[in-house]
Predict the 3D structure of the following.
Amino acid sequence: MDFRATTEQASIRDAVRALCARFPDAYWRDLDGRSAYPEAFVAALTAAGWLACLIPAEYGGAGLGIAEASAVLEEINASGGNAAAAHAQMYTMGTLLRHGSEEQKRTYLPRIATGELRLQAFGITEPEAGSETTRIRTTATKRGDGYVVSGKKIFISRALQSDLLLLLARTTPYDELADKTRGLSVFLVDLRAAVAGGRITIRPIDTMINHHTTELFIDGLELPASALVGQAGMGFRHIIDSWNAERILLASESLGDGRWFVDRATRYASERVVFGRPIGANQGVQFPIAQSHAQLGAARLVRDKAAWLFDHAEPCGAEANMAKLLASQAAWAAANATMDAYGGYAFAKEFDVERKFRETRLYMTAPVSNNLVLAYIAEHVLGLPRSY
Ligand SMILES: Cc1cc2nc3c(=O)[nH]c(=O)nc-3n(C[C@H](O)[C@H](O)[C@H](O)COP(=O)(O)OP(=O)(O)OC[C@H]3O[C@@H](n4cnc5c(N)ncnc54)[C@H](O)[C@@H]3O)c2cc1C
């Protein structure tokens, strides 16, 4: 077993760290206060090619593996930034790459790689279906060669910042299906044209973090047959195929958050003097920080294993899910240890602890809640009876 990072991975981390240094805490704090999108940061990340690192070289990307993409996202969050502002492009693209036609890939991937087009929006969740994706009601009805789509989506992030939307819609009524995982299809939608034509209305949702998530109201959206990605009726499977990548990448963001918290808590607890000694000399302060550091180390090993399996085209569902679960929990433990170490100052926005605390909490809930991750481990890995 070789636990060392490759030279390439080490230099990727150095390069991303250098890029992030141009976007310090004050940059993210200001955006958070204004609920503004990190345009300059995403532009810099795109220009440097990091958002296209998973796109194969033949389509204009860097053709790197998930281990390298993980390093990119981890370093962003470890710098104090928030990779969630742009991460979806990495895993949403996977559905197009794996299941899109050659023509779709040649048309879109090179333009996504250069940043000419943004594929940042992923439209799955609906108000009535929630975590039960196979219950979605947004329907794509066949008309001529194409489809007409109507329905409603909720929590669709970055719809206002994206040119393209990867949309999951029903093509066969639920009641007509013997296998409920069938009957859904994936479409690549020109979001700008759909909004301009009045077929999609976007309504922002005000959330506790700066996340740019929205509701979509879709009314009579006409799509050509060429918008279908992969096989009609197999959309749920096509989406699932990108879930392992998503879990590994999100685990990496949590690990980055955790590193940021441990670093800040360690520094602050070493410097802040109360009762005549640094507060970090008290085990009540130092143990939670040390504990979360140990948890992060364990989660990192599972993430690294999941990434290795993924990059070697081995099954990695169990490891990818465990990595997401453990990393988000470790980051949350580190967040709480840091809140405690900072005392009242944790609540003052200028220290950024409360911002990162809010941001890291999301990973326990979205894009998939840890309960659903545990259900996967219990039911698909251990073979326990199904709850859903
Ligand atoms: C900021 C943000 C951004 C998001 N961005 C996107 C996006 O870009 N695209 C997109 O499609 N979606 C997005 N989502 C949606 C997200 O994926 C869902 O919120 C999430 O999947 C859970 O769905 P729900 O909120 O309807 O919860 P529900 O399904 O109503 O679940 C509520 C609670 O019950 C638990 N629960 C439900 N069923 C079970 C069960 N069988 N066993 C155990 N526990 C269960 C859940 O774990 C959860 O804790 C986003 C959400 C947020 C908050």
Observations:
- Residues 122-125, 130-131, 155-157, 207, 211, 213, 362, 365-369, 371-372, 375, 387-388 surround flavin-adenine dinucleotide (CB under 6 Å).
- The beta strands are 121-123, 139-143, 146-157, 164-170, 184-190, 200-204, 213-223, 228-229, 273-274, 277-278.
- The first strand starts at residue 121 and ends at 123.
- The longest helix spans residues 243-271.
